[in-house]
Amino acid sequence: MANNSKLKLHGFNNLTKSLSFNIYDVCYTGDTDTQRDYIRYIDEEYNAERLTSILEEVAGIIGANVLNVARQDYDPQGASVTMLISEEPVLPVGSVSKYEEPGPLPETLVGHLDKSHLTVHTYPESHPDHGISTFRADIDVSTCGVISPLTALNYLIHSFDSEIVTIDYRVRGFTRDVRGNKHFIDHEINSVQNFLSDDTRDRYQMVDVNVYQENIFHTKMMLKELDLNHHVFGDLEQFNEEERAEVLENLRHEMQEIFYGRNIPT
């Protein structure tokens, strides 16, 4: 049955701020059994329950109350969570701005966004050629009001083991001041990178494509350094030095294709 009760709004800000992620984990899985084990591991590590917990933390970071949660695990793989949220002032007088940059990391953390939501969908996949498996998570944080999804940036990046991150941030609509003047954005920004922590900027190669007049900001990130201990699923000791170099090259090639969005000849 639909909930017909109305949510009372006060001083509502009509600007909609949307933050969208595509996060990729790239791993070497040398054979069919290892690929299957990797997919099983990802499905367990990022099941609907775990994803719900991540989104609940995001709601807390951006200052939101959770209204409703729908979640689902899928067969053969993947999971989805959708969370409706609403805005509520949570910072006491004298606290730092909700646009303080950068936002918190996971280890520093101790969801009524009006007409707002959090969603996450996962896509584990593999292919028998080249021994590479990938895991993609698509995340959307959409808010209306004075709160900002940008404060959740660092937590989300650190919540997933990410080799490639594609971020889109856009401010839509307008709000009015008491004189009736329209405001199409209510905070300063010239790049998503402004809201990333120093350690994140140090770890990733980044490229911006921004359309300032439309309040559209796009940042692509690719991990600079690869450690085979973290990017080989299974026993690394089975590979000699030549095989390790080949595995590393295959991983870099996969990452570059995802980062640049095109097939690159080997």
What does this structure look like?
With 266 residues, this protein is α+β, with helices and mostly antiparallel strands. It has a single domain (16-260), classed as 4-Layer Sandwich (S-adenosylmethionine decarboxylase). The chain is built from six helices and ten strands. It has helices at residues 32-45, 48-62, 153-159, 198-203, 228-231, 241-260, and strands at 16-28, 64-73, 79-87, 116-126, 132-144, 164-172, 175-176, 182-183, 204-211, 216-223. The radius of gyration is 20 Å and the shape is globular. The protein starts with 15 loop residues before the first strand and ends in a 6-residue tail after the last helix. 36% of the residues are buried. Mean pLDDT is 83; it is low at 6-10, 89-101 and 104-114.
